[in-house]
Amino acid sequence: MSTPDLTVPVAASAAPPWRERLTTMAPVLLLAPSLVASFIYVFVFTLWTLYLSLSNSSLLPTYGFVGVDNYVSLWANRRWNIAYTNLFLFSAFYILGSMAVGLLLAILIDQRVRGEAIWRTIFLYPLAVSFIVTGTVWSWLYNPVDGIQAFVRGLGWSDFSFALTANRNTAIYAVIITGIWQSSGFAMALFLAGLRSVDPDLVKAAQIDGASTFRTYRKVILPTIAPIFLAVAVIQIQFAIKTFDLVAALTRGGPGVSTTFPAIYVYDLMFQRGQIGEGAAAAMMMLAALAVVLVPYSLWIVWRRQAEGRDG
Amino acid sequence: MASIALNDRYDPEAAAARRRYFWSRFLVYAVLTFFAVIYLVPLLVVIFNSLREQPEIAQNGLISLPRSFRLDAWADAWGSYCISGTCEGMRRNFFNSLWMTVPATIISTVLGAINGYILSKWRFKGSEVLFNLMLLGVFMPGQISLMPWAFLLGKLGLTNSTYGLVLIHVIQGISFTTLFCRNFYVSIPDDLIKAARIDGAGFWRIFRKIILPLSPPILIVTVIWQFTGIWNEYLFGVVFTSGQEQPITAALVALTAGGTTARAYDVMSAAVLIGALPPLLIYLFGGKYFVRGLTQGAIK
Amino acid sequence: MSALTIRNLHKRYGAVEVLTGINLEAQTGEFVALVGPSGCGKSTLLAMIAGLETITSGEIWIGDRLVNSVQPKDRDIAMVFQSYALYPTMTVRENITFGMESRGVPRADQAEAVKRVAALLQIEQLLKRKPGQLSGGQRQRVAMGRALVRDPKLFLFDEPLSNLDAKLRVDMRTEIKKLHHRVGKTTVYVTHDQVEAMTLASRIAVMNQGSVQQFDTPKSIYERPANMFVAGFMGSPAMNFIPARLAGPANISVRTANGSDATLALPTPVAAGAPDNLILGVRPEHIYRFTTDLKSRKPAVASLEAPVELVEPTGAETLAVLRLGDLEITGRFEPDTAPTMGEMVTLGIDMSRACLFDPTTKALL
User: Fold this and answer.
1) What's the whole-model pTM score?
2) Residue-wise pLDDT tens for chain A (312 aa)?
3) Which CATH number does the domain housing residue B199 bear?
4) For residue A268, is it within any domain?
5) How close B288 comes to chain C (CA, Å)?
6) B209/C98 touch (CB, cutoff 8 Å), yes or no
7) Residue B78 within any structural domain of the chain
8) Residue A297: which residues within 8 A CB-CB, separation 6 or more?
9) Burial state string for B20-47 with b = 16 or more CB within 10 A and e = fewer than 16
């Protein structure tokens, strides 16, 4: 074939008429408002708050530049250090706890139990309830005078003691337990979906190889759903870092300042104490904490997607 | 016949296996029941207390079966209980939340569906980058945006108003709804769109006739996510509104914080339930689809 | 008149050149197959004809209209997709009428057209069903119905049979051929299956790495492949490529299993300027068991000895793997005269059907 090429390469197309150009532009135009809004929300707002954190704003935003003074005084503050320590403590226990409970429940439900839908609904309903409601109700249950302690003592065990929220050293665990109660159902749902997506032939192969149920889960099923562990952890850690409502309703940061969290502290600085500059600095530290978790995660996601792309 | 005869013979190994099976089943249900009790007790406690009389609660403690029954606490919480000086119950705050949640949910879902449609089926140069930028909104902690919002709402004259909260929730929500819809629409084969284009359908017709009819699974997820998220939101509510204009979450905190004297657990329980009911109902009706859709599209 | 003309078409994604200078044309009523391995650019080419991919440079004409910047819907084409792309939420009838509705065809005409196409494809009883309730073959028919109903200038098929099981694929192949005879529409058909291309097409464009290797009738493509790629891609089992040396103006020699050379006589002298080292291309069916009777029937037969390493009877024919030098070649034999394993067989190679290739340019000599 290979006919000699006599045609002069022509410009691919004459300029299309404006109507057509409008049709091809339509998607971009439609997307534009959302894009602009998101751009402002993400970048302008962040830079704005960053600037405020470097300013001498107190009761009202002002724009006198003071460098990193706010950060210095923030980190010199005992309450902020408690808040940050609490955040790490809470994140670790909350994530591990809800993943452990969620995984246990998912595996149990995966044993072809009867009434699966009912179990699932029971474990998942707290997710629909706000942290405010959860926190309020659990604050009653933790209340030594009216709650669980009173109930158990009423049963006859008169020196039973359960007063987590009344004690500075244990109040944080009340927050952790409540957090786990609220969101282990979510972890369960994701794990369950993961378990269901495992190729059944894989499980059959393991059974024929003589692996016990426990071994099958540990060696075959759980490794294949490893990405879900990471996804659950990343989602939960976001909840953890943004934790505000739960503490606001459950302990209000107390007793004393023992359950202060960064989110609570930001609110206090900005709106109760009129230290907007330092509050903005605290907010930036929250963002930094998120970035520490999310940047590696998203890089990993991108890397994985590319690796898959290469294989596919 | 032979198999029946075989079964009749006593096989110690089979018997042991049967026993093991029985005990493992027992254990499964026992653990599930244990956790179910933990999950259900708080709910039952609140429901019971909203129906008990306050003196009875004071006498027997919070955790107890109801020995009295009345709905007064519900009526009180709804219409006449005093929250920080105003004695109108939660009614106003409930409707504040409703007028905030419903429009914000609808607007952000519609925008998310259109954005997702464009970002998955009408890609253009740089659209992936733009998508990833929008995605960042998902991770933004609300605290970062507090001051800018305060300034912006002030400029727009929307402080202490439900409209202001609607605006905040729409813009914050776009990232989520776009992410959900885009990830779901990506799994719709591109061939369908190509076939429709050859069939003479344009941007909107493809959206209406092909994409939307396929969308219920993800729209349910998006609506549930947005509705529960916005209804349950507290930070913006407490920062940008006050008193009569507060959404129900903020009002609940105000109500339960009120006074250190004998706490009106009956009314507070009813109030808590009123505040929790709309998202609970939404979840009970749509939860099945929510989990399915979430794992289909949203979490990837 | 040509119904489709493609001139010097290029497609680039960034720095990646996907199509490099495609020239093709299809006469009215012709059935052109684009065939090639996956990633050769055939589907991209089809999408560009449909208007679903933009053109980097070059021209596409449908009839006498330059369609480079014409929207897919205005190109007067219909397309059948590999995935069928049936709208899952619509019934079969709605699927078929969707295009007409988009174009505002009156209801009565739509009903008429559906009736006609449904009868043609025997899918009348399926019209109320949704795609999810159809079998693979039925979906295939509906997809064709949706294309046919439009009565377009140009029919485009993108690997329409590759999702069907083997038997159904053969049946549908026959049906597509019948259908083409009946409606006589110009058709461009993309496939990776060389058998489909051979059986259906009036002309085949064999593509590799973004360019057309050869564009010709199935017969010429099979018998006189333009280069080693085409020769190797078309035909199954594939053509044997045997390194050979020029030994005189009309003789070549090849290495046999015991290390000695065998000289094979060519029916016509090699063209002047051919390199000393050549590749001899022999299709399996042109390898016979040598007999004097064969020699009298096919005078161009050249003989050589080879041990039989493996025999694969398929019923209708028997394939034998034969050793030649340090390579294995495949011969296709009548079951009755097939060699047996371990046998040292004297082969007769029909040199009039053999091809010679230049090993550096890979082109046919």
Assistant:
1) 0.82
2) 333 333 333 334 444 566 666 667 778 888 889 999 999 999 999 999 998 888 887 777 777 778 788 888 888 888 889 888 888 889 999 999 999 999 999 999 988 888 888 898 899 888 888 888 888 888 888 887 777 887 777 777 777 777 777 777 888 888 999 999 988 988 998 888 888 888 888 888 887 877 777 888 888 888 888 888 888 888 888 888 878 888 888 888 778 778 888 888 899 888 888 888 888 999 999 898 888 888 888 888 788 877 776 553
3) 1.10.3720.10
4) yes
5) 21
6) yes
7) no
8) A230, A234
9) eeeeeeeebbeebeebbeebeebbebbe
Alpha carbon of C251: minimum distance to chain A alpha carbons (Å): 29
Q: Which domain holds residue A163?
A: 78-311
B157-203: pLDDT as tens digits: 888 889 999 999 999 999 989 988 998 898 888 899 999 988 888 88
Tell me how many domains chain A contains.
1
C214 chain-A contacts, CB cut-off 8 A: 1
Sorted by sequence, the CB contacts under 8 Å of residue C251 that are 6+ apart come out as C263, C264, C265, C266
Q: Do B198 and C81 touch (CB under 8 A)?
A: no
List of chain C residues whose C-beta atoms are within 8 Å of the C-beta of residue B199: 73, 98-99, 102, 146, 150
* pLDDT exceeds 90 at position C255: no
Give the C-alpha separation, C82 to C192, whole Å: 12
Residue B226 tokens, joined: 């947005």
Q: Is residue A232 part of a domain?
A: yes
Residues of C in contact with B194 (CB under 8 A): 47, 50, 52, 72, 79, 81, 85
Overall domain count for chain B: 2
> Residue by residue, what is the 3-state secondary structure of B209-236?
HHHHHHCHHHHHHHHHHHHHHHHHCCHH
For residue A253, which of A79, A74, A76 has the smallest C-alpha distance?
A79
Q: Report if residue A60 sits inside a domain.
A: no
Q: Does residue B79 lie within any of the structural domains?
A: no
Taking CB atoms and an 8 Å cut-off, how many pairs form between chains A and C? Answer: 34
Return d(Cα A137, Cα A285) in angstroms, integer. 31
Q: Is A247 part of any domain?
A: yes
Is residue B86 included in any domain, yes or no? no
ipTM above 0.90, yes or no: no
* Domain of residue A199, CATH code: 1.10.3720.10
B56 and B99 together in one domain: no
Give the burial class of C256: count Cβ atoms within 10 A of its Cβ; 0-12 exposed, 13-18 middle, 19 or more buried. middle
Q: Are C214 and C205 in contact (CB under 8 A)?
A: yes
- Residues B141 and B60 grouped into a single domain: no
CB distance A137 to B46 below 8 Å? yes
Compare CB distances from C8 to A1, A5, A14 and report the shortest one's residue. A5
- State both tokens at C332: 């296709």
Q: Which domain holds residue B121?
A: 91-299
Please state, as a whole number, how many other Cβ atoms lie within 10 Å of the Cβ of residue A47. 11
Across the interface, whether the CB atoms of C102 and B198 are under 8 A apart is answered no
Residues B196, B251 share a domain: yes
Sign of CA dihedral A279, A285, A289, A294: positive
Mutation choice for C interface testing from B188, B197, B198 by most C CBs within 10 A: B198
* Residue in chain B nearest A58 by alpha carbon: B147
